[in-house]
Specification:
It is built from 12 helices and 7 strands. α7 packs parallel to α8, α9 packs antiparallel against α10 and α10 packs antiparallel against α11. It has 2 domains: 218 residues, Spore Coat Polysaccharide Biosynthesis Protein SpsA, Chain A (Alpha-Beta Complex), CATH 3.90.550.10; 117 residues, no CATH class. By secondary structure, it is an alpha/beta fold. Helices cover 56% and strands 12% of the residues. It has a 7-stranded mixed beta sheet, sandwiched between helices.
Amino acid sequence: MVSVLIPSYKPDERLLVLLRELSRQEDLCGIVVVDDGGGAEFAGIFAEAETIGKVKVVRHAVNLGKGRALKTGINFCMQLFPGADIVTADCDGQHTVADILRVAKELQRADGDTMVTGKRVLPPSVPLRSRFGNGVTRLAYLLSTGKKVYDTQTGLRALPAKWLPEMLKTPGERYEYEMNILLQAPRDGLAIREIPIDVIYIDDNKGSHFNPVRDAIRVFSRIFAFAASSIFCFAIDYAGYAILLSGLHIAPQFSYIGARVVSAVVNFLINRNVVFGAKKGSVVKQAIGYFALALVIMLLGSYGVEHAVSYWGWNEYISKICVDVVLSVVSFLTQRLFIFAPDRKKGKA
């Protein structure tokens, strides 16, 4: 069974056209529309939507954001259609019925541990903010997860029923929720499969309620967390290094080691629990891997600082900065790909 979920904020007649066509599809068990607090001006559209076969409307008294609308709809679908998969689609006419059915059928052919998304290959005629936003989030997603997803902003997604309870727990109330689902998927072992869909932008996409600045900040919140963690622990590391070097007059290489031990413990806790969201993994295995990496990085850094100061005559502080920049890249890639890598086991949800 497959149901369709459409979060809607201030829709127009295109929503009704889509609903009428979807209601004629025998493969769909039902359609849920979430009125995300559009107000009295749009009440007539939702009232008419309720007269269309298979359509149920759920209402928010005030606008709560797309993420909350999706969660409300998922919860309602789970109660109304137990065990059914869900296809989410936008209300502005960007997704055709044919494409909605295609992602639904692709999901039913999958293994139950795969989310299917519609991939828009954007031509030059597509609005600049859409091309720019997708390009930036595509790169950020690759750096954050090590996985390639071409269209990170697509609203057309087929969600397997098995994973719906986990998706209800995913944080995010507005546009960041959809990105958080993608970020969490590889960590939990949910695969992502993209299939090409039509690209439809009506009236230069003026119907979109996505604010490029405000919502980009929300979308990148988790990615900013890694940068914040690195900066915070760098400050702890550098302060400790300065205290040991200048206050206690300890040799540069041993000052480096002492400062790194303290910052490594703090960094492990932040990265595990906040940045990489790896709470479900074995803390013992993660700690062994992380501190083994920290030991290697520490030894390489100690050697690098000593070599730069003794043989090249560099300033002790500048030496540490240069060495840490290089080693931070090595550390990030190792943590992301190995230590806090997603759990590949099936059936976790």
